[in-house]
Fold this protein.
Amino acid sequence: MKIILDECVDRRLAREFVGYDITTVPKMGWAGIKNGQLLTRVSETFDVFITVDRNLPFEQNLPQFDVAVIALQTPSNRLADLKPLIPRVLAALAIALKGEAILIS
């Protein structure tokens, strides 16, 4: 399973995904690309897109993209706020469906 973290997610969170093929939007050279165009690029290569943009699932027509979206709802995008969600994120990876979003808080 190939996972990509949005540029608004602390890149150090990738360390929590042991055994997964994971990268970040900036590492791909896609920083600054708007959500629709970004999801198009992401869906060509990745299975799951993880973001803290809680509005993304409502602003984009996700069924048109061949990628599952996991939106993390936390007080901030700091690593300390994101890490407690990892067990739920790992569980969600098993049920994530392309073209749909899972909100985790």
Remarks:
- The beta strands are 2-5, 21-24, 48-51, 68-72, 101-104.
